[in-house]
Amino acid sequence: MGLDRVALGRIDCLALAFASMFVALFVFGAGCALAQSDSAADSTADMPTTGVAQPLAETKVEIPLKAALAAANAGAQPAAPQTTPTPAGAPQTAAPSAAPPTAAPLPAANPLSERQRRKAEKLYLQGAKRIEADDPQGAYAIFAEAAKIDPANPQYLAAREVARQHLVTRLVQEAEQARLAAHPEVSRQKLEEALALDPTNPVIAQHVDELAGDHRLRVDTVDETGVDAEGPIQLAPVDGKKSFHLKGARQEVLRQVLSAYQIVAVMDSTVTQEPLRLDADDVDYAQAAEMVKLLTGTFFVPLDPKRVLIAKDTKDNRQKYERLLVESVYLPGLTDAEMGDIASMTKTVFEAPVAAVSKDRGILTVRAPEPQMKALNATLADLLDGRAQVMIEVRLYDTERARTTNLGVALPSQATMFNVDSELNSLIAGNQAAINQIISSGLAAPGDYGAILAILIATGQISSSLLTQGFATFGGGISQFGVVPGTVTGNASLNASDTRALDDIHLRVQDQEAATFRVGSRYPIVLSTYSTGSSSLSAAGINTAGISSALNGLGLNAASLSAQTTIPQIQYEDIGLTLKATPRVQHGADVSLKLELELTALGGTTADNNPILDNRKYTGTITLKDGSSALVVSSLSRQETKAVLGVPGLSDLPGLRSTTDDSKNINVSNLVVLVTPHIVRRSHTDVAGRRILFPPHE
């Protein structure tokens, strides 16, 4: 359907182009015919009169734009007008006796020099070449220049008209293609160019209506009777500057000043007749009107382009006489609170009688006089410019190193000493039956307590830990004692770790808005638990045969009914990096940043079966230039732990340090945070907005 419109539009535009071309050629041919008729009449007057009428001379018009016409209609030549030739020997119609009509005299033109004539002919040829090269825009500009040099040449005028219509057709085609390709702005621009070339072309108007119809909402018809759809009335004073030296009553001075610019003044009864003097030289209407308004304390209300009502400038009179305009202001991207603030400002600052906000649609409907409406639009243009935006670059360097060593020998810190004779007697007394059996079987001789003790230990009859492990003895007889030494341990271990972390974060934030960036995991921590059910079900009769079998049929039993369920209460903690930034763009390319940086990690210890969290946090506000970096956090932590395990006094002696168990634990951590703000969008670069002058009220 869209392609059909393009074809129809092209055919219509070409038809208009050909019609305009043939009209121009017809005028030119008519002019030539009239000129030849005049010359023929003059020559006939000089010739002797005969009874036979003389045939008219044949008129032949050469059209040098054949190539241009071929390019304009894309190969379709219009049919040339056919003339019926007069047969040879046929009688000719005699000319009427009355004088033939003469053509209207053309206005005298300035004679062209030979140089200008050659320049026009050269431009004409260049334009024809542009037509052949399918460049109607260039051809139109060249033909227009040739017609400007020699406006009396009808060929140049006809060529300019053909090129203009060809260019209009090309622009309409390009506009339709852009509209079908969903580029309404390009289509609108092409149609505006075509409309500037041919304002009365109905084909262009049709395409403009189609383009507007694509974006027009279908709404119910509204009765607009009495609605002024033309906007405020604009006065039409005469141009020029006037000088005034007047002295008299206020009303008379006002009338004389306005009448000088052909404006009729209608006075309100509130305008007084106090004397006034005005001296002003070379002022236009706007300057003169502003002067008399300030001198007389009045304001003007246009009644039509040539009449104005003048009244005393008071708030009551303005409410009484001033015309009110209704306008809908679109407030995209604003919150409900911001739209409410704008509506309040419209009523309080600009004194608009009516200001209603539709928050769901983001529309502010205002009813106010024209000066207040203009001031409101100018202020909203600055307020709705949008906020600035900042790209915040945060680079975080975090390194941790841990080294643990354990070297040396751990000597026993205690030893066990016992009396050998007492320990043996207690063993013999406790195992007499086993000893008699060993002696009777001949495994050991009576009194050979060493062999008997060995047999008892081998058979597992002795459970004493003193005799089942190695020990040393000293003394003799009943004073023989045994010593059981402790365990000697040798250690040689090393545990080292090196951790490096780099976080490069870019946050794009709107001015005065907070942005939060969080990376890491959420760790569950059990705060408390509670149980449901009871440890035993003691209801009467629950275990009887009938009730028990009925419950079993339902898949229930006393054990399942008395089962306990433990439900924990869990709180999730953020583990990792959390960054919150709020920028404020200041004048002079400065950025104020409010930063909250928090690093949370699991510690190596627990409390009440809950892990201990290691937390590092920074909160502060800094001010930086655009693109400047600052070191906001620098932390160095070093922990060194040393432990010695040995014998007091002995481990401190020189040469005996190897008998000491020496362990060291070193932890070193570094944290560096760099912040760089970049302003990616600026707004309100001026310190103050435009100054708007409100009319004074008495």
Please provide a written account of the structure.
The protein has 698 residues and is of the alpha+beta class. The protein contains 17 helices and 19 strands. A 4-stranded antiparallel sheet has the order 13-9-19-18, with no helix packed on it. It has a 4-stranded antiparallel sheet with strand order 14-15-16-17, with no helix packed on it. Strands 2-5-4 form a 3-stranded mixed sheet. Strand 15 and strand 16 form a beta hairpin. The chain is elongated and about 165 Å long. Residues 1-109 and 215-229 have low confidence and may be disordered.
Shape annotation: elongated
**In which order are the strands of the major sheet placed?**
13-9-19-18
Total count of strands: 19
Our measurement of the CA-to-CA distance between the termini, rounded to an integer number of angstroms, reads 64 Å
Low-confidence stretches: 1-109, 215-229
Number of helices: 17
What keywords describe this structure?
alpha+beta, 4-stranded antiparallel sheet, 19 strands
